[in-house]
Amino acid sequence: MEGNRLTVTLRVLQIHATTDRGNFGRRLDFRPGLNVLRAENSAGKSTCLNAIAFALGLEGAFSPRHESPLPRAVTEVLEHDGKEIPIRESHVTLELTNARGKTITVRRFVTSPSVARSLIRVWDGSYLTGGPEVKGPRDYFVRMEGAATREAGFHTFLASFFDWELPKVVKFDGDEVPLYMEYLWPFFFVEQKKGWSEIVGHVPTYLGVKEGFLRAFEFLLSLDTNRILVERQRLEIEARAIIDEWGRQRSALLTIARTHNGMLKGVPAQLGANTDPQALDSAILLVPEGTQWRDMTDLVEGLRAQVLALREVAVPTSGDDSVRLNTELESARGELAAYEIAQREIQDKLGAEQEQTRALEERLRSLREDLQRHKDLERLQRLGSPEAHSLDTSRCPVCHQTLPETLIPVTTLEEAPTIMTVSENTQFLEAQVKSFAGFQASSGRLTQAYALKLEALSRKATEARLRIRIIKETLTTPSAQPSAAEIRRRVLLEEQIGAFVRAKEAFGHALTVLQATVNRWQDHLRRAAEMPRSHLSDGDEQKLNELQQVMVEEFREYGVGSVPSDAISLSHTSYRPEYETFALTVELSASDTARLIWAYLLGILEVGLRNDTNHLGLLLLDEPRQHHAAIEGYTAFLRRAAANAAHGAQVIVATSEDEVKMREVLRGIPHTWHSFGGRAMAPIP
Amino acid sequence: MTIDASQALSGQDITFESQTIDVTADLRPRWMVCAVVLILAICGRGRRASRQKVHALVWSLLSERTRRNFTALLDGSAAPDSLSVRFDPTVNRALDLSIGLSLVRKHEGDRVELTDSGGALAASLRESGILAAETLYLEAIRQRVSEADIGNVLYWREID
User: Fold this and answer.
1) Measured between CA atoms, how close is A380 to chain B, in angstroms?
2) CB of A431 less than 8 A from some CB of B
3) Side-by-side strand order, sheet with B48-50
4) Helix or strand run (H / E) with residue A10
5) pLDDT exceeds 80 at position B140
6) What is the value of ipTM here, to two decimals?
7) Using CB atoms, which residue from B29, B97, B128 is nearest to A405?
8) Mean of the pLDDT values across residues A639-656?
9) Residue A356 pLDDT > 50, yes or no?
10) Which residues pair with A105 in a beta bridge?
11) What are the residues of chain B with a beta carbon less than 8 Å away from any beta carbon of chain A?
């Protein structure tokens, strides 16, 4: 494993304020490895670290408010020599270098009469240290919509400076956005006031990214899990698209069927996990013939045979044809009568079935209303209010006799039938609703089938009437004329065949399209089955196990506390430390929490640097020795932090500890020391 | 195939098991008490109403059809003889029970009044959305069901 190549190093931080009494400010020159900044608590050491977050436009990681995280001493009024001096203009400048050795300088205005706080000015090169080839400046915007997506957005720029390809994540409102950098910043920065009470507790959930902490962790350590997640989401979208298309194509088939009063059979209504490639093999189109349903293909064959037979014979004249015509007239009349009888029969059945449907609807309505009332009674039982409790109707409030669960008078209680309890009755009603809904559905289907048949019969009857009319006409025309009836019959047959053939073609074509969809579905199912069960790949498991090992090791190194270090593990689902599989924050003492935070974040940094990940190798801690954790542990932590300089890490610790004590703690540990007595905002020439 | 009943049954014990029977919710005391309490709270004048008003309103809220028809009657869009409002002895029992439970008390004549605990129950029901459909209906008609309105509905034949 080549290891991380994305480390970033902070070079210079400058806070500058212009006043009527001259310039004030502070400059800190950082180096790689461990940096310790020592100053009094209220002197502004936190201001320095917070200024770094501010310069990078990341103060939104800690608060949704748009006030600056910097104190009055930088924004409005500073104190010097016992006097209060108003600030005319102030800004923060930060120089930083990325892994490719490129340096940029970013400046953001805190107070300015002319420049907005949402603007960040960027120079290529070291503008502060006066390096060679300084180019720019260019302006970007931050903490407004688009800061992470538009080209002029500062976080778009910063992400590319860090060589970060931020993954697309889903927000609660459904939008897809690149993972906001505010979710990543808490892994690099622990602020003094709220950062030490929980282990990365401060996730900026107000930004609305679903499971933002998880996505941030996965990105930081380059877990494959995000890729798997994205693939899964893509598969879901694909599934929906295929199912939608199936629905549309099937509707098209139904339309073809309807134009011939036909029924579709053998085409599944929905695609499912069990749909096999042969799902469409038995698909046919049925058309009614009298009271029967016949496969349209067979019907066409029959009609074709008729036409062929007719073609052998010349069209007879009406005179020649009169005998045949009379026979035909008889049979046509007979047919018409039969159709009319069949129509009346089906009309009756249809009427009866419609009546049945209406009755069922009424019953269902009343059942559903009773079900709702019983559910209301169940909810009443679960209501905790005292009023609901006083509603005890099982005993007479006066004589305390048992009362039946019905308002209908019963003669003696022995004769009273056993009445269902409310929940029994609810279940009973649910079963009734289900049954009746089933009856209603099948009644509906039957009604539909009758209606279709009726339509078909009605068309046939009209046809027959027309034929009768034409035969009659033919019989009264001069006998030398060709039989119009016969001609018509032949033409009609051909037309009918034509219509069926077209339908058959359309049907065949639609089936081909559907088959293609079935094949696509099969392919989709196969790919879905190949997806890994868990959301973590083998490489991911390895990294997480490594992190657990490192974290537990460090926790032990930093001293013994209220929990045994070997009971601590790293959850593979929440990515947070757990104590015997329970979330930790309740169990640990405050100083243990601090030590665990050191172990967790430094552990992530170490694993991040040892593997090919997106970690920046940066860690900023404001007052890590909270609650007076044991000094030996603190020393061990600082030593370990410094040791990571070999891999390109930069750890900046701000502390208000006694200077002499700190110097002693740091003896033998390679570090860069910064300190200032007095205030951070001191006069500068 | 013929079966000789005496042969089939001889030597066997026949047992009867009582089946529990279902009962509609509006016949359950607790439900009806809730309905009565809501009627008094929403449609009562100062949480009071005559017994006949309670009967009429209970009858009207029992099904979607009766709710619709009763509303039409109150609107004047249905003829007064299109409906037959019924008096229901079960409502009397529910009223007695409500009085026994101190949710309702008797008032002068044949009137009944909601007590404070009855009012609290009504508020609790409305807040948790129990008997929501009935509540919505009562709120919709509350301006049109004074004692005089109810009298007109019930005794229209006697009005000239």
Assistant:
1) 7
2) no
3) B48-50, B111-114, B104-107
4) strand A9-19
5) yes
6) 0.87
7) B29
8) 90
9) yes
10) A95, A123
11) 18-34, 63-64, 89-90, 93-94, 97, 100-103, 117, 120-121, 123-125, 128, 130-133
